[in-house]
Amino acid sequence: MDLRDKTFVITGANTGIGRANAVALAERGIGRLVIAARSLERTEPVLAEVRAKNPEGKVDFVALDLSDLSSVKRAANEVLEMDVAIDALINNAGVAGLQGQTKDGFELAFGTNHVGHYLWTEKLLPLVKRAKQGRVVVVASHGHYRAKAGIDWDAVKKRSATVSAFPEYCVSKLANVLHASELARRLAGTSVTTYSLHPGGVASDIWKRRMGVFAVLLRPFLITNEEGTKTQLRCETAPELASETGLYYDKERPKRPSALARSVELQDELKARSDEYVAAFL
Description:
Layout: E1 7-11, H1 16-27, E2 32-37, H2 40-53, E3 58-63, H3 69-82, E4 88-91, H4 108-129, E5 135-139, H5 166-186, E6 193-198, H6 205-211, H7 213-218, H8 225-228, H9 230-237, E7 247-250, E8 253-255, H10 264-278
Parallel strand pairs: 1-2, 1-4, 2-3, 4-5, 5-6, 6-7
Antiparallel strand pairs: 7-8
Helix pairs in contact: 1-2, 3-4, 4-5, 5-10
């Protein structure tokens, strides 16, 4: 795909896979890249690298805290004011291994990884629909297979219950896959396609900060951020994927997601509840 006239919007590209994704897009000469992250100071090195690799392209920063729906609304409105068609909306940011609750009372992983991104996507869909072939790319995880009990609708409105917060992370990733699939059904017949994906076992900051010395021991078994971004780059840019929508990808190829992730009933329930969660911020 020729990216010179394209606009991509990515969350959480200040570090890890997101940063590798942003740099790779700059190397391909993308026309405009909007990076939405919590801290301008922490994102400045990425903005500088993107500008250095793609001097003719444009890069913007938007302050976004996905754990605060008021922040999501403000950030989305800022992007809407740019009044440009979004060729790819990349929901990349996420938290893992952290206990807590969001400002709006959701379990931290579910509220950040799903609810925040759900509102972000709903707000920006009008711009994605304006693109000739708009894409919504959701970075999920193989961990969604481990959410075998589905979604406990009471638990997602409480503080993380487990010490590791890994089961909660897996539920949030199940929600990511469900969201991408439901959105594909909802947008059938439009110019927008959706994709969810597992980036691989990546030596990214998301787990390194939680695991300490164990992260060092695991590193030989993990792939780099640059390798980890390959699947989402393919979902974002491969022309042949324009005819595919709602699928889950692993190692750059479609893969059958969990039975729960394929449940149309659960997809629809998640949408209905998510609409209620974000109604006051639309």
